[in-house]
Amino acid sequence: MSKKIANSSRRNFLKTAGAVGLGSILSPVENLVNARGLSAANESKEKVVPTRPFGNTGVEVSILGLGGAFNRSNQLLLKQAVKMGVTYWDTAEIYAAGLSEQAIGKYFQKYPEDRKDIFLVTKPSMSARNDLTRHLDYSLERLKTSYIDLYLIHMLADISWMGEDIKSWAEKTKAKGKIRFFGFSTHAQMEKCMLGAAKLGWIDGIMTSYNYRLMHTDSMKRAVNACIKAGIGLTAMKTQAEKAFGYQGEVGEENETAEKFTERFIEKGYTFEQAKLKAVWDNPNIASVCSYMTNMTVLQANVAAALSKTKLSSEDKGFLKRYAKETSSQYCAGCAHNCEPAINNEVPISDVMRYLMYNHSYGECKRAISLFKKIPSEVRKLMVSIDYREAEQKCPQKMQIGKLMRKATVELG
Question: Tens digits of per-residue pLDDT, 91-150?
């Protein structure tokens, strides 16, 4: 494949990814798939996505999870997911202001026989701590189900939040049959939360940021190993490792490594995005990958990757590591404990980085703005004038934190 074709293909890939949003994978177009590749809508009609054990729960879950802010028009997508064996479904009470749960509830009303096959996950916000029962009951009503398979406290960043009161609530709620398993999701300080959860002894599942950028760090390896020893089921999210700058940022424009990636993977019959998924599945301790899939194209491409028997070679993995290193300054690793104390925790740097990612890489401007405006107005005003130099020095990714915080106030404020 010529360099010109590779560049053209990559531009098309990036445009499509930006349009379809979080965790996007591109269409397994026939002319991009060879005999060794992933396609095969024709070959995979009778196949379903494989499953893996979810920790020590005794339950098997599909290695590909359906994530997203669904709406009532997504019924065909949900039905197709069931047919393809994508039976791990993730949502949250805050997704689309409750409409996502309602969309799934509409599906269960129409196809009640499918409920037993779905491993249903939903999440209350952190603010629900003092009224978890009410939040759960609202979710059960919207989802039109009598129980949740995995109930996760959303966006945990401090394991001390999971105190005895939360443990007691989880045990009582399990006994009532309203939830089967309990845990949390985490975007920031993931490793600390995971290590802490392993010591608690009562956490069933964790959904954590985990991708080709994070999986090779010593801290993440320790955290994963601790969770596995504790019998905690692990779900990977943010597996595409999108950058705060977006795909074409002000720093580190498309480079020669990225072009080589695209050409290399296309010749093997799969996309760069599918390769990123396969890198995560290469770790058998990751039970499922939660991918944002709100259209059929993304679903089909992700399923194709999950069904593929082709393994990433050691050279492929080396390319991913190299790319991660070359673009590290554009990716926030969620290690808020490094940067935020340097500015006296006055600005939630890690959260703002995630909102920038939603805007640039997911194409979700409204979501990014909505989340950003939940930051107190006085903190948003401070963001422009704070000296971030010490925070930047402590950032292992060497991100231009000050520039990005000011960028956020302009784009999202």
Answer: 999 888 889 999 999 999 999 999 999 999 999 987 787 899 999 999 999 999 999 999
Angle between helices 3-20 and 256-268 (to 10 degrees): 90
Upper half-sphere CA count for residue 177 (Cβ side, 13 Å): 2
Rounded distance, CA 274 to CA 40, Å? 14
pLDDT for res 127: 77
Tokens of 253: 């424009």
**Pairing mode of beta strands 60-62, 51-53:** antiparallel
Decide: 156 and 185 in contact? Cβ < 8 Å. yes
On whether the 3-18+36-323 domain is CATH 3.40.50.300, my answer is no
Cα–Cα dist 94/84, whole Å: 27
- 140, 176 in Cβ contact below 8 A? no
Q: Do residues 82 and 64 lie in contact, with contact meaning Cβ atoms separated by under 8 Å?
A: no
Residue 135 sits at the vertex; the CA angle it makes with 132 and 136, to the nearest 5 degrees, is: 85
Q: Tell the residue number behind the tokens 């531009």, with chain if given.
A: 11
Cα(301)–Cα(288) distance, rounded to whole angstroms?
16
Instruction: Judge residue 260's burial from the number of C-beta atoms within 10 Å of its C-beta, 0-12 exposed, 13-18 middle, 19 or more buried.
Output: middle
pTM of the model: 0.83
For residues 43-65, average pLDDT: 88
Picking from 142, 136, 135, the residue whose alpha carbon sits closest to that of residue 106 is 142
For the chain, the domains span 3-18+36-323, 332-411
Distance, CA of 226 to CA of 197 (rounded, Å): 9
Query: Strands 88-90, 119-122: parallel, antiparallel or unpaired by DSSP?
Result: parallel
Alpha carbons 373 and 377: distance in angstroms, whole number: 8
* Cα torsion angle, 269, 240, 281, 83, sign: negative
Using a 10 angstrom Cβ sphere, with 0-12 exposed, 13-18 middle and 19 or more buried, the burial of residue 160 is exposed
